[in-house]
Amino acid sequence: MNDRKPPSDKVGFDGLSQAESGQQRDLEVDPKLGDAPVVDAVWGTIEGDGPDYKSLSWIQATVLQLKTQIGLGILGLPAALNTLGLVPGLIAIIGIALVIGWSDYVIGTFKINHPEVYSVADIGEMLFGPIGREILGFAFWLLLVCVAGASFLSMSVGFNTITEHATCTVVWTIVCMVIIGTLSSIQTLNRISWIGWVGLVSILSAVITLMVAVGTADRLSLAPAGDDWSVESPAFKSATFVDSINAITIIIFAYGGTPNYFSIVGEMKEPRDYTKTIVVGQSLMTGLYLVVAAVVYHFAGQYIASPALGTAGHIVKKVCYGLALPGLAAGGVMIVHVSAKYVFVRILRNSPHLSKNTPTHFIAWFGCIALICGLGFVIAEAIPFFNDLLSLIGALLNTLICIQVESYMWIWDNWRSPSRGTLKWKLLFAMNVIFHCIGWFISVAGTYAAVITLHQNFQDGNLSR
User: Fold this and answer.
1) Residue closest to 251 by CA, chosen among 141, 88, 385
2) Neighbours of 390 (CB within 10 A)
3) Which domain holds residue 423?
């Protein structure tokens, strides 16, 4: 296990020790100090002439967490239940929610202990040195770029559905990229929190409409012609290993917004309120996932479309996508914003341009937005299979960034804890080791399964568009 110095020896961005930096930050955000500049271990001195990167309330943070999670992933959950069966599928959702919920909690405690941490890359450097920083930083960034591509893909499917392919898919993908890129260029999470509210209302409206529609529809979009068909939604199903692992990784993708939580807690006014956001956000999210997945699977069964919004009849499908488009855009905005800000902070860290409105600041920021959008567009065009893209991202990147890293973070941070050796410490240690091993298994097996399925779909031409 890596040795680490006591907190008082850790040096943050501003040259202060970790303890001093945290204390100074806590003092300077005290409202009694009025307009005194804030000194943060990541952003440095935040004054009135630049963006306020420490302004998120816990309610705004909760909304951003929900919008980061509730989006593309929820559209794949009914299909996951169609593979696993109702009972195993719901158990899988609850189990993954508990594992990811613990990971989300660890991010907050680690941030409080190490204020200088802003992203997964910072974690990599702290735990594994410069090489770890590059590996985990690239994995984190690639994950967000892939999800940005999935956002472009889902929106282009929506536009194609509404217009009945009146315009080339590539053109719609470009339109989606421009919309998301423009909105994501707003500089701080506090100023785009309203987009999170819009996105939540949009997605919730779409999935509620979908649930009502599949429960009352005389015909589903993928049902065969004629009346000789019936919905089958058994509680238990027999699935191949490849199909089962793909379903699990789709569920993991639905909880895959975890790496964005580093940025969210990093911009909260009071990071100690972060645990509150996890309890509220994770509970609401999991409850919604269970209801939507179970209802749509029960009424649609084997005729679930990919994405799920296309499951209901022809007209309802258009309505669902029309309602969902703002939510899909909002999810893409969050992803592009966070991934661009990771590169932005990496480029300008330790520079006065990071938190001041200088020409260098703006050139770097808009350049990062353009880079992420361009790469996301390439991914959306290269992998035009919605569920396959979700399962590949979930297996190859989400497990690493959302389970394995956080479980090791807890072990690393508590290895020399005063409570080491107590029953509670031993149980938590064992739990994190088990989570870490589960993450590795799903990562290897899931990547294999996703590649096999992706290859087969390319051969069969089963486009999701």
Assistant:
1) 88
2) 33
3) 56-460
